[in-house]
UniProtKB/TrEMBL annotation:
Family, as annotated: Belongs to the cation transport ATPase (P-type) (TC 3.A.3) family. Type V subfamily.
Domain P-type ATPase A: 288-407
Topology class, membrane: Multi-pass membrane protein
E.C. number(s) listed in UniProt: 7.2.2.-
Native source organism of the sequence: Graphocephala atropunctata
GO BP term, example: intracellular calcium ion homeostasis
Protein name (Swiss-Prot/TrEMBL): Cation-transporting ATPase
Keyword Endoplasmic reticulum listed: no
Lineage: Eukaryota, Metazoa, Ecdysozoa, Arthropoda, Hexapoda
Subcellular localization(s) per the UniProt record: Late endosome membrane; Membrane
């Protein structure tokens, strides 16, 4: 829908007035920077515009519907943003795509009348309960608004000018002289300030809702009737209306109704699909509930969640809830399922926000933040106190709202076939214009009536531009949809099917996509007297040592509905011990007052002393911190007065906190051994706390107890590949499709999985790119480190294939790049020129956030790749939506963002989508060429016969259009996708490239020649009588027969030669209905040509030759046409041009596929990548190694690690 409030997407830069004038900016300097221009309504201009609309009988208004910016230019004048009543927002993407948004500026005032307008914006007054309305207006007028703006600006104003762009509110700031984005309390507010919030009264809450709007993530659902109207207003359907009018004027009734039925089918199917997609998205993201808010110190009230605004204090219920806003936890603890954000159903414990005079930071304080869309499973209290949280963000400002915005406003996708199909219509329009001019001139010179000339001239336009084209292009994709559904793959956007046929790069998430969801316990490696002992696989049979005690107690598990729940790693680790976890069966509300809230004990059969059973109570927990890379618990054993702390985390972190004399000397090589095999490794340490009693435990700082550990062992876990993964990766790489892993997991585990599944092949070296920001003289440091085949005079090998890379080492073997999200972000910000090289050679992108996954997809697209993204989590949504083809393995949020969703949760769906996409793309090419050539040959037939003032009869047109063209086009796409191997060459994507243009041109020349031959040969026979013009609708003649009889075979020939088989579709004979139709229609055409019944002659209005000599010549011409056309298409076009000469003299520097030039540059530059070793190796790779397992990934900054000499 293109209206005054919608974006208009174009494929190249508009040369409009707004590009030449000075402009202001929204979000200046940010990734979502947009230009903004002010306009003010002009009464004179508006009157002139509507006068022009009337003079053009509404055609100008239709043009304004397609290009609404021109309506703004005609009715408004440019002005300063400070006085504008409308704004034009220009969103430029990659300097290739431009989206325009035209929005009205709304003024909200603290005066009663202005406020009521604002109230109506926040919640229509008519919907309010009379008592609520009275209660609200009792405190009017409002003195001023307090608004939190971008860059931590806080304004208190009495009047605001607002615009809403991409679901976000922008406020005019007189100080900055620009529109600034309204933000929540997540920017510029200190933590102790958040603790001072005690809740708003009704009027204060409503006042803020005027600015922030209702707290809902609302996706508009348009009515089917409206969608049908919008579809009909598409330029191509407007042309069909014109076509129908011309045909009705000529009494060409039958095919007119056929076109109307096909058009109705195309319009309704598109409208229904769009409506269903909107309903699905609305149903998935839009939820409402009742929430308890605090109204002061001791007053509480239940209100709809849509009423919440930043600054409200809400109560988290005991039984849990789904969060409808982003909120900072003020009091108590919550156990939350954050699968909506992370893609993993892992219960996470959230703790109260510290009361500190430090700015709130979402990244650092995520452990204290409840995010919108996540599910609170249960709460823990201090006595009977309520668990409070302060609302930080609402609506589309929330984390979930941002996710939905990425779905509603995805980056523009560039697909050559769609663009070229529209350009081709303009070529046909030019041909039609030439035909129209020719018709007017020739027929005028022969003295025909003006009315007849006009009808014949307009008829030429309807012949050259086939009105059935949209419907026939849709049918092929519908067949592909049906085949995908048989393989349990659903598609919510049929337009993407063709795009998936061009894919040459596939990005895979790891966990749940390439590998199984859960982790399995492999074993443990005990440490005794600073020596690593042999690994133990049967853990329940281990002797009772501090290591088994630590595995049983060092976790954040809880019991939810009678089931032990928590991080899968913690669950697997605890279950492997065979111990029993218990929580006292008492009121949840008193858990915080318990001295020992949870206990663990061995099963009675394993207890060494049944008379005095072993039982360990968990006194205190220090939650997992990604920054610290560890978690710890303080315990007490029943019958003992000593307190013991157990700590587990990354081996690096535990080692740095352990006594050096307890750390094994061979720890580094052992870690390398396990991590290179894809195992996830964590370490455990412990110490007995001396001189600490129960009272002091709650007051101890973490740094005071997490020190001087004894290093007691390693826990080794494995993440298995799904059975289908390796085969599918091999198949894709065999087709020369770039395969990339993009994951949130740590880099060495990711690299190991990449090697195991074949993303990184044997013999390939993995080069890790490490980037760090330094506040000293050198702001950026980048290292390229590797293991494998290196050449350097001073590179001694250690630990097998792992090498200590000195500066200047060069990679001789093929290599692939691995990079972490942290380094990706640093390089993208400070050294963006490196990103293309990293993207081209990259195979593993680890520790990537949802936003970074989307960035990677976009970078690959900018390099010319057609990118697919396959993932299963909500954190993949941005990348799934941005990719040319998103494939979700989940039925949850990811399926809404992704065009394809597989009910079978493995990657075997990826080659299936590519196969069907290639088949659909080749079908679309074939149908498009068939329909274009059909229209051109009908045009040639008409032009030839116009030379004698004749034409094809209405029923000849009907026979061609329905029995031949529509019949073949309808069954053309029934060929199944090719079942053989995926070939390296993807189908063509451009209709305007030399190969399809040469194909069409050769066929036009050949078929036109045969029509001319037939037209001239028939005139040589003695029985021939020239056509005599009688009337505008009388066409019976020998010339008519000669052109029609040859032409009918040509449509069969077109359908046959353009129905391509291997390597993208099964052979033509496997499409039984289509092949049978070709055979039957060939027989019918032979019958009509050689010996038709009299009723057929009368029906088609033929003048049949008195002898069979010419009909036999026609059959000979048809056979010759078939042979020549087949040779040209099969040998010249498909074999010589497509297979042999496609890339000859191909200048990769000018190619759309920029990655080819980058790859060539990298391959010829023997000095890149510059393998280096940092002056002080902070074990950058070791940092990755020891980030073995984490309860949300050991990510973020870490304590200063131990320095190693071995560099991975």
């Amino acid at each position: 829908m293109l209206t005054a409030s919608d974006g208009v997407k174009t494929s190249k830069k508009h040369e409009c007035e707004w590009e030449e004038a000075d402009s202001n900016y929204l979000n200046k300097g940010e990734e979502d920077e947009m230009e903004i221009y002010g306009y003010r309504e002009s009464g004179v201009c508006k009157a002139v515009m509507w006068g022009c609309v009337l003079l053009t009988l509404g055609v100008l208004r239709l043009v304004f519907h397609w290009w609404p910016q021109y309506m703004l230019y005609m009715s408004h004048k440019r002005c300063s943003l400070a006085v504008a009543d409308k704004v034009l927002v220009v969103d430029k993407y990659e300097k290739r795509f431009t989206s325009l948004f035209i929005k009205s500026v709304k003024i909200l005032s603290t005066k009663n009348e202005g406020l009521e307008q604002g109230l109506d914006h926040a919640e229509p007054l008519r919907r309010l309960d009379p008592q609520e309305l009275t209660r609200l207006k009792e405190k009017l007028p409002i003195k001023e608004f307090e608004i939190h703006l971008y860059n931590s600006a806080i304004r208190e104003v009495t009047e605001v000018r607002t615009i809403w762009i991409k679901k976000l509110c922008y406020i005019w700031d007189d100080e900055k002289k620009s529109f600034l984005k309204v933000v929540g309390l997540d920017q510029g507010v200190t933590k102790n300030k958040l603790h001072e919030y005690h809740g708003y009264d009704y009027q204060e809450q409503y006042k803020r809702r005027i600015i922030y709007g209702k707290n809902e993530i609302l996706v508009q659902i348009q009515s089917i009737a409206k969608l049908v109207v919008l579809e009909v207003l598409n330029p191509f359907y407007i042309f069909q209306v014109f076509t129908i009018c011309v045909w009705l004027a000529e009494n060409y009734i039958y095919y007119t109704f056929a076109i109307m039925i096909m058009s109705l089918f195309g319009v309704t199917s598109a409208a229904l699909q769009t409506h269903q997609n909107q309903k699905n998205l609305h149903r998935t993201v839009h939820t409402t509930d009742i929430v308890t808010v605090k109204r002061g110190h001791d007053e509480y009230e239940d209100v709809p969640t849509t009423h919440l605004v930043p600054g409200d204090v809400i109560v988290i219920p005991t039984h849990g809830c789904i969060m409808h806003c982003d909120a900072a936890l003020m009091v108590g603890n919550c156990i939350v399922n954050e699968s909506m954000l992370t893609g993993e159903s892992v219960p996470v414990t959230k703790t109260a926000l510290p009361n500190e005079n430090v700015l709130y930071n979402e990244a650092e304080d995520s452990n204290h933040t409840l995010f919108c869309g996540t599910r609170v499973l249960q709460t823990r209290y201090y006595g009977n106190e309520k668990v409070h949280a302060v609302v930080l963000r609402t609506g589309f400002l929330t984390s979930k709202g941002n996710l939905v915005r990425s779905i509603l406003y995805p980056p523009p996708a560039d697909f050559k076939f769609d663009q070229d199909s529209y350009k081709f219509i303009w070529i046909l329009a030019f041909i039609a214009l030439m035909g129209l001019i020719y018709t007017v001139i020739t027929k005028s010179s022969r003295g025909l009536r003006p009315g007849d000339i006009i009808l014949k001239a307009l008829d030429i336009i309807t012949i050259v531009i086939p009105p059935a084209l949209p419907a026939t292009m849709t049918i092929g994709k519908l067949y592909a949809l049906g085949r995908l559904q048989k393989h349990q793959i659903s598609c919510i956007n049929s337009r993407v099917i063709n795009v998936s046929g061009s894919l040459d790069c596939v990005c895979f998430d790891k966990t749940g996509t390439l590998t199984e969801d859960g982790l399995d316990m492999w074993g443990v490696v005990p440490v005794s007297e600073a020596q690593l002992k042999p690994p133990v696989r049967n853990i329940p049979e281990m002797p009772f040592t501090p290591l088994i005690y630590g595995m049983a107690s060092c976790h954040s598990l809880t019991i939810i509905n009678g089931t032990v729940s928590g991080d899968p790693l913690d669950v697997k680790m605890f279950e492997s011990t065979g111990w029993i976890f218990e929580e006292p069966e008492i009121e949840e509300s008193s858990k915080y007052d318990l001295l020992v809230p949870s206990t663990v004990r061995p099963p009675p059969s394993k207890d060494p002393n049944p008379e005095k059973p072993l039982e360990i109570g968990i006194i205190h927990q220090y939650q997992f911190s990604s920054k610290l890379q560890r978690m710890s618990v303080i315990t007490r054993t029943l019958g003992s007065r000593d307190l013991t702390i157990y700590c587990k985390g990354s081996p690096e972190a535990i080692q740095s906190l352990s006594k050096p004399n307890t750390v094994p000397q061979n720890i580094v090589s052992t870690l390398q051994e396990y991590t290179e095999q894809g195992y996830r490794v964590i370490a455990v340490g412990y110490r007995i706390l001396d001189e600490v009693d129960y009272v002091h435990v709650q007051k101890l700082r973490r740094s005071e107890v997490e020190r001087d550990f004894e290093f007691i062992g390693l826990i080794v876990m494995e993440n298995r590949l799904k059975p289908q993964t390796t085969g599918v990766i091999s198949m894709l790489k065999g087709a020369q499709i770039k395969v990339v892993m993009v994951t949130g997991d740590n880099i060495l585990t990711a690299v190991s999985v990449a090697k195991e599944c074949g993303i990184v092949e044997g013999g390939e070296t993995v080069v890790e790119v490490i980037a760090e920001e330094d506040n000293n003289s050198n702001p950026l440091q980048i290292w390229f480190t590797c293991g494998g085949s290196l050449s350097s005079k001073s590179v001694p090998a250690t630990n097998g294939t792992m090498l200590d890379c000195e500066l200047g080492a060069k990679v001789n073997a093929p290599y692939r790049i691995a990079i972490s999200g942290k380094s990706w972000g640093v390089i993208r910000e400070h050294a963006p020129d490196l990103i293309p090289k990293i993207a081209v050679k990259g195979a593993v992108f680890a520790r990537m956030s949802s936003e970074q996954k989307q960035q990677l997809v976009q970078e690959l697209q900018q390099l010319g790749y057609y990118v697919a993204m396959c993932g299963d989590g909500a954190n993949d949504c941005g990348a799934l939506k941005a990719a040319h083809a998103g494939i979700s393995l989940s039925e949850a949020e990811a399926s809404v963002a992704s065009p394809f969703t597989s009910a079978v949760a493995n990657i075997s769906c990826v080659p299936r989508v590519i196969r069907e996409g290639r088949a659909a793309l080749v079908t679309s090419f074939g149908v498009f060429k068939f329909m274009i050539l059909y229209s051109l040959m009908e045009f040639m037939s008409t032009i030839i016969l116009y030379s004698i003032d004749s034409n094809l009869t209405d029923f000849e047109f009907l026979f061609i259009d329905v029995c031949l063209v529509v019949n073949f086009a309808f069954f053309f796409g029934r060929n199944h996708a090719y079942s053989g191997p995926l070939v390296a060459q993807a189908p063509l994507t451009s209709l305007l490239s030399p190969i399809p243009l040469v194909s069409l041109l050769l066929q036009v020349l050949v078929m036109s020649t045969f029509q001319f031959i037939s037209f001239n040969v028939v005139q040589k026979y003695p029985w021939f009588e020239p056509f005599q013009y009688v009337g505008a609708t009388y066409y019976i003649s020998f010339e008519n027969y000669s052109v029609f009889s040859v032409g009918q075979f040509q449509y069969i020939i077109m359908a046959f030669i353009f129905s391509q088989g291997a390597p993208y579709r099964e052979p033509i004979y496997t499409n039984r209905i289509f092949f049978s139709s070709l055979c039957v229609m060939t027989c019918i055409c032979v019958y009509i040509t050689v010996s038709p019944a009299q009723w057929i002659i009368d029906f088609l209005q033929l003048r049949f030759p008195p002898k069979l000599d010419f009909p036999l010549v026609v059959l000979g011409l048809a056979l010759g046409n078939f042979v020549i056309s087949s040779i040209l298409e099969t040998f010249v076009v498909q074999y010589l041009m497509f297979k042999k000469l496609r890339y000859c003299n191909h200048d990769i520097k000018k190619s759309r596929r920029k990655y080819l030039a980058i790859a060539e540059e990298i391959d010829t530059d023997r000095d890149w990548p510059p393998i280096s070793k940092p002056a002080t190796v902070v074990a950058c790779n070791q940092q990755s190694i020891v980030r073995g397992v984490d309860n949300h990934a050991f990510e973020g900054d870490s304590p200063k690690p131990v320095k190693y000499t071995t560099k991975l």
